[in-house]
Amino acid sequence: MRPGPAGAAALANGSRSQIKVLRPEILAPVERASAPEGPLPLDEILIGDCLEELARLPASSVDLVFADPPYNLQLESTLSRPDQSVVDAVDDEWDKFASFADYDAFTKAWLAAVRRVMKPQATIFVIGSYHNIFRVGAALQDQGYWILNDIVWRKTNPMPNFRGRRFTNAHETLIWAAKDSGAKNYRFNYELLKAGNEDCQLRSDWLFPICTGHERLKDESGRKTHPTQKPEALLARILLAASHAGDVVLDPFFGSGTTGAVAKRLGRHFVGVEREEAYAAAARRRIAAVESLPPEAVAPAPSKRSEPRVPFSAVVEAGLIEPGAVLVDEKGRHRAVVRADGALGLGAITGSIHKIGALAQGLPACNGWTFWHFRRGDRLEPIDALRSMMRERLRAAEGSD
Ligand SMILES: C[S@@+](CC[C@H](N)C(=O)[O-])C[C@H]1O[C@@H](n2cnc3c(N)ncnc32)[C@H](O)[C@@H]1O
Description:
The protein is α/β, with parallel strands linked by helices.
């Protein structure tokens, strides 16, 4: 059984044989925050305690944070498989806290330190399991962060529950939060994610295997370099969703450097903090071997909202469609005529592409750009294709100025 708060308090009082580490550093976050600030050390791993190192970074300087903090797993005894082989579980000192209160104090301190260095529109992803994620979620909200989603990372290959006393623990949870409730223009590459997902909105349940095979860092004797190395595909999803090429991604618990490796491949910068030199050394070697993708493979797409507004009349004026042309819907049930002024005619009624589209269907509203189609050869294409051509022309004209 894991200790409840009472049991944890007993542990803190030293009344159980297994004494855990109480960290004095988490009790003095205020003094740490007054350390002098330096420039942002791009693409570097800072060795040390994250509270101290974060206090040295400039305020409002990073675009995205990925945090994979200690989970406080509280493993009390050796875990064995049915064949009596020992499970390589996370029993490292950095994951041990004397009590829930101690863990909460640490969580509050690093969340505050991270929030200070986030740009106003930056967001944070924190990953955790049932051991810690609820405590992290409460701390996030208490500090003014604004939760945007919780994401379930469902593991295709979870470790079985060897004792058969619980469900197989087959997922971890990510909390995605903005710096505060007023943050509106945070990065979310909605259109690109949707385009990559067969034009369906991406959901909050993600399916990835845990990190195994050639991706898993091992030492010469075949032992895992880091006990909790996260899969690169998970980090790639996060960075592609919530950052742009050239952005700075902060990881205050860098471990084996998964965030740095993925950031480099996707043309982002990283700043990592890790207190164990051995992990940082492995991360440096790993990142050095990564090749960045060509810029055109990772360039941000302009979001539809940020693109210049193009009225249908401009498409007609530019000669991309002739006055008198007939537009139809995708199934050919409705017909409208393009007028020289950029309005549409439906019998005796005239109006915008949107209004006439809505009227034809008997609906209150309609997106005329996707509803109306024109004939190109033997195919029907939405007039949105003409708007895209128009925007291309505008961009080309801007570029030649
Ligand atoms: C859960 S692991 C992160 C694993 C990482 N995401 C990866 O893919 O390899 C947490 C890491 O944080 C480090 N750590 C724990 N407490 C820390 C602290 N106070 N400051 C800096 N690093 C810390 C540990 O050494 C460990 O490598």
